[in-house]
Each structure stands twice: as structure tokens, then as C-alpha cells.
Amino acid sequence: MRIGVLTGGGDCPGLNAVIRAVVRTCDVRYNSSVVGFQDGWRGLLEDRRVQLKNDDRNDRLLAKGGTMLGTARVNPDKLRAGLDQIKQTLEDNGIDVLIPIGGEGTLTAAHWLSEENVPVVGVPKTIDNDIDCTDVTFGHDTALHVATDAIDRLHSTAESHQRVMLVEVMGRHAGWIALNAGLASGAHMTLIPEQPFDVEEVCRLVKQRFVRGDSHFICVVAEGAKPAEGSMQLKQGGTDEFGHEKFTGVAHQLGVEIEKRINKEVRVTVLGHVQRGGTPTPYDRVLATRFGVNAADAAHAGEYGMMVSLRGQEIGRVPLADAVRQLKLVPQSRYDDAAEFFG
Fold this sequence. Notes:
ATP binds at residues 10, 73-74, 103-106. By secondary structure, the chain is an alpha/beta fold. It has 2 domains: 2-138 and 280-323, Rossmann fold, CATH 3.40.50; 140-276, 3-Layer(aba) Sandwich (Rossmann fold), CATH 3.40.50. The protein contains 13 helices and 11 strands. It has helices spanning 15-30, 41-46, 56-59, 76-81, 83-92, 104-115, 140-161, 176-185, 199-211, 250-262, 282-301, 320-323, 332-339; strands at residues 2-7, 33-37, 49-52, 97-102, 121-124, 164-169, 189-191, 217-222, 266-270, 306-311, 314-319. The strands form 2 sheets. It has a 7-stranded mixed β-sheet with strand order 3-2-1-4-5-10-11, sandwiched between helices. Strands 7-8-6-9 form a 4-stranded parallel β-sheet, with helices on both faces. The radius of gyration is 22 Å and the shape is elongated. It starts with a strand and ends with a helix.
């Protein structure tokens, strides 16, 4: 059997560990070969590929961030228009099964290909942890460590200057990074996309801390957080070619509002792509490896149209159709628990 693998969408710590595991499992367990398509779906459309081998170079992938195959975002309309080319590329290279590794967009494309009778096994990745039907996605733990470490450091400088600090983290639709980093770092408030915030309530908590003699205030803000209607006018940035909203810096805009309303100095830190980069944590390396092994097993077992998934401590498989039906958002109960630590 000959397996194809690609990484789509944004990069994520642990991608190389999945590739390594697929290659090693295919070689050792099944005596199969693996072809990697470069720069995600674009490489598949343009037939740019590399033969992947179970050698020293493959072993060195485990601790390396990013993706050795490269990645890119491709407009879904371009993918649909290129269906015949995709099938031709797979046929020309003798690919029996394709293993796409990616987030919502990549897995949705994988599901669509599966419905077009392309043998596919999906592997979920995203630092946002918003893929449904799996407890955790690899990459989230690394991003959480980066965000928590940054907020820990900001506590000391905020305390020294008696400042309000707003820390913006990734999370377009789901607030898992913000919620978990806020709890782990002892932040005084967390704002997430699932819960529209009231600027007056934010200001009330800020004033409350300083009135009672506390030295600083730290609020973690997910990039997709939005104010409640009538609470604050958020500047809009339009949409990109994929229909995704362009964010215009909610933390910076909130900081201006806080300074205007309560005359308190505010500093904003946007962590940005540092959350995506660098060496994956041991947890993400292990999870990504287990996902890669299971994906290779599924491919050889003929279980197509599936996504590998973590439930409890076990790796299993779920239909791609179920996994891409909706995003996994922060439930009200989880946010309510976190809110007990606000202020």
C-alpha cells in the first residue's frame, strides 16, 4: 500500500510527530511507503511531493515545531474546482489512501473528498482545541504552556507598576486557550468568543481590585471575543478570501475604552504566532504520535472517511461527517466555573 500525507491550514506544534509516526508505522508494521505532499492542498493540486523514509531524518522530527512538508491555506472553491486534478495526482502517484492533518477547514475538505470516493483518514490538529468529537487536539497543550508562561511573567511587571494588563491570545471562535491559560496563570478575568462581554463589568472588576488595595489587574482576551450589544463599538476588519473575519485587535480597543472610562493606565500584549511556534510539549508529542499510528492503522484497515480521536485515554475513530458538523466551543458551565475566580 502507498499512503499520501499532507498538512493543511495553520502550522501547529506536533505536526512533524504525526508525520513521523505515520511513516514509521507504515514501514515497520505494514511495509508500506509514504509520500508527503508539500504545502498542503496546494502541493496535491500541483503534484509537488517528496518520498518520506523511516530513517534518522524522520526520527529527528519528533521535537521539531512547524511542519517539514510545509503548509498553506487554499480556498475551498479552488479545491472543488481541482477535484479531477486531485484524483489524477493520487492516481499518478499510486496513492491508495490520503491522510490530511489539519483543523476545521482541512477536515471539512477531507470529508468532502471522502464523499467524492477518495479514500481519506483525517487527523485533527489545532492549537484552538475546537475540533468536535475529540477531547483534545495536539498543539493546544503547547500553546497553553506558551500563553501561561507569558501571563506569569506579566504578573510581575504589572504588579510593579500597578497597571492593568490585557493579554490577547488566539481563539477565533473558541476560547479554550484563553480560558485555560487564564485559570492556570491566575488571571483576574477572561474574555472568550462564546460569552459577549460588558465593558462596564470589566471596568467594575478593575476598580474593585484597586479599591480594595490590590496592585494590578490582568485580563486574558481571546482574539475572537466580542462586546455585548451596546457595550462598546468594535471596529470591523472585513473578511479574507476564505470568509474568515479579519480581527482588528479587540484587546487594544478594549484598553482604550478602559482608560477612557476609569482613567487607569492599560498595557496590551498580543501573543500572536508565538503560540504556534517552537518545540511541542511532551504531551503534544505523545498525542500526535498516537494519532499518527492510529491513522496509519485505519488506512490499512480500510476505515476511510474517518477521523482519529481521543476519548478519555483511548484513541479511536469517528466519522469525519460528525467531526466537522460543528465546532467544539466552551460550554456555559466551564465558563461559569472559571468566573468564580474573576476579580
